[in-house]
Amino acid sequence: MRIDAMNWMQVEEWLRRDDRAVLPLGSTEQHAQLSLAVDSILAGRVSVEAAEPLGVPVFPVLPYGITPGFLAYPGTVTLRAETHLRVVRDVLESLHRTGFRRILVVNGHGGNDPARAAALEFMADHPDCRIRFHNWWNAPRTIARVRHYDPVGTHASWMENFPWTRLPNLAAPDGAKPVADTERLRALPPAAARRLLGDGNFGGRYQRDDAEMLDIWAVAVAETREILAEGWA
């Protein structure tokens, strides 16, 4: 159940019988020809579809993350790492104060990984709380399904090209792009990173068949739902 479809009384009623919630983390950054909100769209959608049969409340996705390397691409928004961690901590504090004790953080952006440490610190300070940090796209079964179709899947390539992350009337380029040197990329300032990457795809094909993408998505939803349902022992 999405929080935007609930009122406070319904949340209070939920907390009388359960203490689980989902917090998606996203970002707003370049994804080549795809939406700037790819990470937020995917984190929010996988959270809602995973939680819906269980009735677990899903909070709105945090749309800004840590992505300074893409600042040369217009539309990218980054938070300082300190700011992002403070925001995540404040959200967790609010959920805990309300009564949530089992919180699944569904992360859609690799740059947000420092929030994993923030979750561990939060649990150290709140021993009655359990937080699972779930990078949905590289969870074991999901990434295995990705590699089943194509061993080369990177940022802004086919593996993020779902029907709901594309922009209308914009066709993906044909063929595949050489894989970027990510080690070199990490050492470059934003303008140089843009010169290296060009359109922003890190390499590989731009698009695969939608039947394959929907199969990967079904695995991702099922894997996320399993953690939400049974991953608290």
Could you characterize what this model shows?
One of its GO terms (molecular function) is metal ion binding. The structure is a single chain. The model has no long low-confidence stretch (mean pLDDT 97). The strands form two sheets. A three-stranded parallel β-sheet has the order 1-2-3, with helices on both faces. Helix content is 41%, strand content 9%. It has helices spanning 8-15, 38-51, 81-98, 114-125, 140-149, 182-186, 190-197, 210-230, and strands at 20-25, 102-107, 130-135, 176-177, 204-205. The protein is mostly helical.
Layout of helices and strands:
Elements: H1 8-15, E1 20-25, H2 38-51, H3 81-98, E2 102-107, H4 114-125, E3 130-135, H5 140-149, E4 176-177, H6 182-186, H7 190-197, E5 204-205, H8 210-230
Assign a percent range to the helix content.
40-55%
Class by alpha and beta content: mainly alpha
Looking at this structure, what is the CATH superfamily? Creatininase
Strands, count: 5
Distance between the termini: 23 Å
Name the quaternary structure. single chain
CATH architectural label: 3-Layer(aba) Sandwich
CATH topology, which one? Rossmann fold
Uncertain regions: pLDDT < 50 for 5+ in a row?
none
Largest sheet, spatial ordering of strands: 1-2-3
Features:
233 residues, two-stranded antiparallel sheet, single chain, mainly alpha
Summarize it:
With 233 residues, this protein is mainly α. It is built from eight helices and five strands.
